[in-house]
DNA sequence: AGGTAGATGTTCT
DNA sequence: GAACATCTACCTG
């Protein structure tokens, strides 16, 4: 892997073009404890206000603000009360589209990743969007970081792009709308690809009686 | 192998 | 108040 991040214009094109082109690339996160890196094997595209499954579908809010900014920045959000997920914003500026980084293979700092996820097998360290964030210690404070800046602690490197012939597509995982849009991209046969899960509405907790 | 339940809190209606 | 781009643990076969 080289030390130079992908150029910003890599992200300045339609999100469904950027997403498959990200497969095989390497996301590095430097922390005081050291560096850890993941080679991306699974991603999903979310196409801004036109996409009912996108966080920006209902317009700009404090949470999704970063999505409306320039491409090449990280959009980190908190979900299910305990997990973080990371996206990379795509262009053009103001389009509010982004690619969710769903899974990958740890290629550097495996000791760190394992310390952060002590109950996990090596294969599962970054197998899933919240696991990926945990392995790389990506949390809310990293929201908005510029991953194309060589000086940034969170960077996306070119790595070795996946052979397009090995890229598969299918419906996105765990989304309740736009189920038919095949905007999940993964490297066929890679063991770190996360299992597909259909969206299931959460069962309501029995409302506390009074 | 596969299903389900429970955890936790932020965001938006 | 409900939904939520999830994960783990704990069942059952």
TrEMBL record:
UniProt similarity note: Belongs to the DNA glycosylase MPG family.
EC number: 3.2.2.-
Protein name according to UniProt: Putative 3-methyladenine DNA glycosylase
Alphabetized CDD domains for the sequence: AAG
Enzyme class: hydrolase
Natural source organism: Actinomadura macrotermitis
Any single biological process term in GO: base-excision repair
SUPFAM superfamilies for this protein: FMT C-terminal domain-like
HAMAP family in alphabetical order: 3MGH (MF_00527)
Key words, A-Z: DNA damage, DNA repair, Glycosidase, Hydrolase
A molecular function GO annotation: DNA binding
Entries under Pfam families matching the protein: Pur_DNA_glyco (PF02245)
Keyword DNA repair in annotation: yes
């Amino acid at each position: 892997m080289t030390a130079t991040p992908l150029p910003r214009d890599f992200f300045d094109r339609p999100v469904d073009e950027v997403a498959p082109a990200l497969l095989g690339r390497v996301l590095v996160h430097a922390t005081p404890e050291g560096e850890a890196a993941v080679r991306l094997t699974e991603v999903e595209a979310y196409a801004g206000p036109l996409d009912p499954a996108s966080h920006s579908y209902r317009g700009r809010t404090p949470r999704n603000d970063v999505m409306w900014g320039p491409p090449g920045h990280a959009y980190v959000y908190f979900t299910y009360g305990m997990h973080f997920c990371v996206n990379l914003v795509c262009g053009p500026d103001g389009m509010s589209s982004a690619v969710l980084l769903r899974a990958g293979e740890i290629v550097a700092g495996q000791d760190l990743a394992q310390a952060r996820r002590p109950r996990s097998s090596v294969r599962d360290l970054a197998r899933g969007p919240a696991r990926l964030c945990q392995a790389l210690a990506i949390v809310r404070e990293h929201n908005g970081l510029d991953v194309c800046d060589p000086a940034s602690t969170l960077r996306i490197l070119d790595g070795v792009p996946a052979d397009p012939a090995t890229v598969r597509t299918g419906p996105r995982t765990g989304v309740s709308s736009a189920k038919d849009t095949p905007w999940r991209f993964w490297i066929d046969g890679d063991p770190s690809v996360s299992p597909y899960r259909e969206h299931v509405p959460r069962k309501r907790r029995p409302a506390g009686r009074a």
